[in-house]
Design brief:
Layout (H helix, E strand, L loop, with lengths): L2 E2 L2 E7 L3 E6 L6 E5 L5 E6 L2 E2 L9 E5 L10 E3 L1 E7 L3 E2 L3 E2 L3 E6 L3 E3 L3 E9 L15 E8 L4 E9 L18 E3 L3 E4 L4 E11 L2
Antiparallel strand pairs: 1-6, 2-5, 2-9, 3-7, 4-5, 8-13, 9-12, 10-11, 14-15, 16-19, 17-19, 18-19
């Protein structure tokens, strides 16, 4: 059979997602991502009909500015296949066609966070009450959704009356993060930048 020309495959993600990479497909094609990261396109090279199926993967991430303002976002992907009626040498003409499909919806829950004070250097004081020169241990417990997300944790202590002595970070068994930066500011604000985190549960 004659070769097919002008065949494009386009994937579009939702407003809270961004395409990071387009995988290598099973048929020769050039790949590109638009400037916004919302649309990826494969332009398939001319190929003989019946030579195989087009299969390609792509990687998308939730944008960093979603949480906590937009809880429980819904991720979907729209994909379209199109071909043109272009002719080569005036003989082999493509058949114009267009097919569109939408993926099933995936709800991405927002992270949850709990703050507690569970240890004190003064046994006679009942927490959360504290006194002068008392040292207390506070814990921030965060449960991540099953997505890749940029994670920065920030919490404030009373400015001018409290100071941070030390900060420790522990990960769950199924959590991987790309980095760890801890900053204790002059006004007793603790900022923990974990980089990009993935929960594999």
């Amino acid at each position: 059979p004659p070769p097919a020309y002008g065949v494009n495959v386009v994937v579009t993600v939702g407003p809270f997602e961004q395409i990071l990479a387009l995988g290598t497909p099973t048929l020769p094609a050039s790949a590109s991502i638009d400037a916004s990261g919302s649309t990826g396109t494969w332009v398939i090279s001319p190929y003989r009909l019946g030579t195989g199926s087009f299969v390609a993967n792509f990687t998308a991430a939730v944008t960093n500015n979603v949480f906590p303002a937009t809880p429980n976002i819904v991720a979907t992907v729209n994909a379209s296949f199109s071909s043109t009626s272009s002719c080569v040498l005036g003989v082999f003409c493509g058949r114009p066609d267009r097919v569109t499909a939408t993926s099933g919806a995936l709800t991405i829950a927002e992270p949850t966070m709990a703050l507690s004070i569970f240890n004190s250097s003064v046994s006679t004081i009942t927490l959360p009450n504290i006194t002068v020169n008392e040292a207390v241990t506070a814990r921030v417990h965060i449960v991540l959704p099953r997505v890749t997300t940029k994670m920065i944790v920030e919490f404030d202590l009373p400015a001018g009356v409290a100071a941070v002595a030390s900060t420790q970070v522990q990960y769950g068994q199924q959590v991987n993060c790309t980095g760890l930066t801890v900053a204790n500011t002059a006004n007793a604000t603790v900022i923990i930048d974990l980089g990009t985190c993935v929960n594999w549960y």
